[in-house]
Design a protein that fits this description.
The structure holds 2 protein chains of 2 kinds. By secondary structure, chain A is mainly alpha-helical. Chain A is 69% helix and 4% strand. The mean pLDDT of chain A is 87. Chain B has one domain: Orthogonal Bundle (ABC transporter involved in vitamin B12 uptake, BtuC), CATH 1.10.3470. Classes of the chains: A mainly alpha, B mainly alpha. At the A-B interface, helix 4, helix 10 and helix 12 of A face helix 5, helix 12 and helix 14 of B.
């Protein structure tokens, strides 16, 4: 029972992180119809920038004031939003009319660029300022910015503050996104562009601005996921390590399982993937956790290619 | 009446048997000569570093040209090519490693050029290719239902599943007694796990790599300019129209997957037995698949010569960038982005090198040698 509850909670926590990343994938796919392979790297960047900020501000020791957590979270979100904006502007916008596979290759290029740039040893002039950018090739340990407290114990399961915050912040961000997309004018513009960019632009919507905005929002959510994941699992691998890329890929799988292009689907898919992965790891075999995720993907694609919450599209001649 | 007229026409248009024989044998003879030249004249002179580079280039050409059949000709989108490579590599490695151990009692290369050891290796390459083709059949089947990015995801998922399963395997056995004591099925799991399948005999040399490269290119070329290849291309251009013209689109797609997988499997087998590479699941993850996709897109989807060119470029570029040491991967990534922005259709686009205007002019002037005013 304890094990079941513990797995359930971890599953929800990890699943909501997947959901946060999946949202970025699904929004970009919904609008531009391409897999933004560099999105997983924004997530990685979010974690590493949080680490850099925390260390530069002198909170490596663990005696961080309460303001540290929110401050690092928000600044890393803003930075990643800016980076997402720049990437879209420089790398994707010139290819707006090119075949999608070219944009995909460019995305892979951007992803390789971020990973390998991050692998360089910190530049001396930045190091003098106390900023450890880029990150180098050594694994690091994220300082704990959120108090390591156990809130209460249910049936032998310690409900930790970190888990509650991970779930809570993810849910809050998802609710905010939900409002943004379905409750504001900008959100309506996003939905219009995703439905049909040409008609949307005829209706006076600035498509380029909407696309930029989508990238900024997606990157901010990924950065938040990066920060939260670094707080939950503090050992950070080097930037080009395959665990980062694999996490991003699994988040994309979550987006597809939920129905790509569908925002609610991405949330549901993320939670489902988190559950499947952690329950599989706990009750079947921990080594095969990636296999469960990808097998689920293949099964879902074969049975319901449009995803769980996606709408089936009829191909016209 | 009508049919017999058509038959007569076809007979009249067909090349004479002598010309047909010359046309079909000429490439084989030329390629055999080139391969022998590489192995015996060029290989020993350029030293091990450049020889290894030539082998890497060859293996990458095989991967890129074979993936081009799926991504370029048929217009499907596979990003799990490294998975087929892994299947072929591990199958072949399994055969040569445990085969040599059982037959000769050691895993050292046995026999000289075209000796018994190399023959075992050649057989293992073919078995590896066939096994990979079997997996290609399985991966190709979902193409019945899925298109575009979704199919891409299935191939990606396949590659990852293969990788994770290989990671779970047990350590390699070292002595023939241990091998005999193990049940054949249990032996299948003794391929090294996450650390890789080490201790494979180094059979891969310029001769074998470039023989298989020649076969790959020949098959790809013949395929492209045959009616089968036209069927592939028609699926790329418009699947619904192709189906209306009576082309079994699913069968065509599955066939493309199987052919591509077979050559990727052989490339994996060559990779497994190369000096200085380790056959481990990490090397054969989706990064490798992406690398092959990059070669295909960079060369121009469907263009054999373009893809060969891109494979050479992508293999050599990181080596050339060694002078900038730690920045080389950054420069490589930037070069990739810039190339995509500057030339989205790839180096040669849809064309072959010999179809480019300036090359045609050059070829014509070489062949005819006649004055311009004539």
């Amino acid at each position: 029972m304890t094990r079941l509850l513990q797995t359930l909670m971890d599953g929800v926590a990890v699943g909501s992180l997947y959901a946060l990343i999946a949202l970025g994938y699904t929004m970009v796919y919904g609008i531009l119809k391409f897999i933004n392979f560099a999105h997983g790297d924004i997530f990685m960047l979010g974690a590493w920038l949080s680490f850099t900020l925390a260390v530069s501000l002198g909170w490596a020791g663990g005696d961080a004031p309460w303001i540290a957590g929110p401050l690092v979270l928000i600044s890393s979100m803003l930075l990643c939003g800016l980076i997402g904006f720049i990437i879209e502007r420089l790398a994707y916008r010139p290819l707006r009319d090119a075949p999608r596979i070219n944009v995909l290759i460019t995305a892979i290029g951007v992803s390789l660029f971020i990973e390998n740039l991050g692998q360089l040893e910190p530049f001396p002039f930045l190091k003098k300022l106390g900023v450890a950018l880029p990150f180098g090739t050594r694994p690091q340990r994220m300082p704990t910015l959120l108090p390591d407290a156990t809130l209460f114990t249910v049936l032998g399961v310690q409900v930790k503050l970190v888990d509650v915050l991970v779930i809570g912040i993810s849910l809050a961000l998802m609710a905010a996104l939900q409002y943004l997309i379905f409750g504001t004018k900008l959100g309506r513009a996003m939905r219009a562009v995703s439905h049909d960019p040409r008609t949307a632009s005829l209706m006076g919507i600035n498509v380029d601005r909407v696309v930029s905005f989508t990238f900024v929002v997606g990157s901010m959510l990924a950065a938040a996921a990066g920060f939260l994941s670094a707080e939950k699992y503090p050992s950070l691998n080097q930037p080009a390590h395959s665990t980062w890329i694999l996490l991003g890929l699994k988040a994309f799988v979550a987006a597809v399982i939920g129905g790509i292009g569908n925002v609610r689907g991405a949330m549901a898919g993320g939670l489902l993937i988190g559950m499947v992965e952690l329950f599989g790891a706990a009750y079947l075999s921990p080594q095969l956790r990636d296999v469960y995720v990808f097998s689920l993907l293949i099964v879902v694609l074969l049975v319901r290619p449009e995803g769980l919450l996606g709408k089936a599209t009829v191909e016209k001649v | 009446m009508q049919t017999s007229f058509l038959q007569d026409r076809a007979r009249a248009l067909a090349p004479s048997p002598a010309l047909a024989a010359r046309r079909s044998l000429l490439p084989v003879v030329v390629m055999a000569a080139l391969v022998l030249l590489l192995q015996f004249a060029i290989g020993p002179r350029i030293g091990p570093y450049y020889a290894k580079m030539l082998m890497d280039i060859g293996i990458n050409i095989m991967l890129a040209v074979s993936l081009n059949i799926v991504n370029g000709y048929t217009g499907q989108f596979s990003i799990g090519h490294a998975g087929f490579m892994a299947v072929g590599g591990y199958t072949a490695g399994f055969i040569t490693y445990y085969g040599s151990l059982l037959i000769w009692g050691s895993t050292q290369p046995h026999g000289g050029f075209l000796g018994a050891g190399e023959l075992l290796f050649a057989v293992s390459c073919l078995v590896g290719g066939l096994t990979a083709a079997g997996f290609g059949y399985i991966v190709g089947l979902p193409s019945l239902r899925l298109r575009g990015d979704y199919l891409a995801l299935v191939t990606l998922g396949f590659g990852e599943i293969v990788r994770v399963f290989i990671q779970q395997t047990d350590d390699v056995l070292f002595t023939a007694e241990d091998v005999r004591a193990t049940a054949p099925l249990a032996l299948l799991t003794k391929v090294g796990g996450a650390l890789g399948f080490t201790g494979l005999p180094f059979y891969t040399n310029l001769f074998w790599v470039w023989t298989f490269v020649a076969i790959t290119i020949l098959v790809a070329y013949r395929l492209k300019f045959s009616s089968h290849g036209r069927a592939f291309l028609s699926v790329r251009e418009d699947e619904i129209a192709a189906e209306a013209m009576g082309i079994p689109t699913t069968a065509v797609k599955v066939r493309a997957f199987m052919i591509a997988a077979a050559f990727a499997g052989i490339a994996g087998a060559l990779f497994a037995h190369e000096v200085g590479t380790t056959l481990n699941p990490k090397e054969l993850g989706f990064q490798k698949s992406f690398e092959v996709v990059i070669m295909v897109v960079l060369g121009g989807m469907g263009s054999i010569s373009g893809v060969v060119l891109a494979a050479v470029l992508i293999t050599v570029l990181p080596e050339l960038l060694r002078s900038v040491a730690e920045y080389r991967m950054v420069v490589y990534a930037l070069a990739l982005i810039v190339m995509m922005l500057a030339r989205p259709q790839g180096l040669l686009g849809l064309h072959e090198a010999w179809e480019l205007p300036w090359v045609r002019r050059l070829l014509r002037s070489l062949v005819r040698q006649e004055p311009k005013d004539g």
